[in-house]
Amino acid sequence: MSRNLLILAAAPKLSELRDTLVRLEDTIIFALIERSQFKHNSKIYAANEMRFRDGYTGSFLSWFLKEVESVHAKVRRYQSPDEYPFTDNLPDPVLPPLEYPPVLVDPQSININDEIFN
Known about the structure:
Layout: H1 14-36, H2 42-45, H3 60-74, H4 113-117
């Protein structure tokens, strides 16, 4: 169900927000459990373990993230105030910008991507 959150009467109730957050938490935990079943390949996470034709010298994970996030940046994913890329120097969007309502908190104050990545 879609709501116009700019209309106060259409805003979700706190109980609905709580239910949504619990479902999201369950989804994240389930994904982590599923991922933990795969064997760990340390070469994926270490720099200079793989040879890239373009001369890239970081880890496969950082290269892969940069490539995926470059595509996402082009379709303006990171223009949304609740989306944060892990990588820097991404291309500009190819689509026109969208107007987002103001947010209550500075999004960068809750961005913990560096801690997650490290």
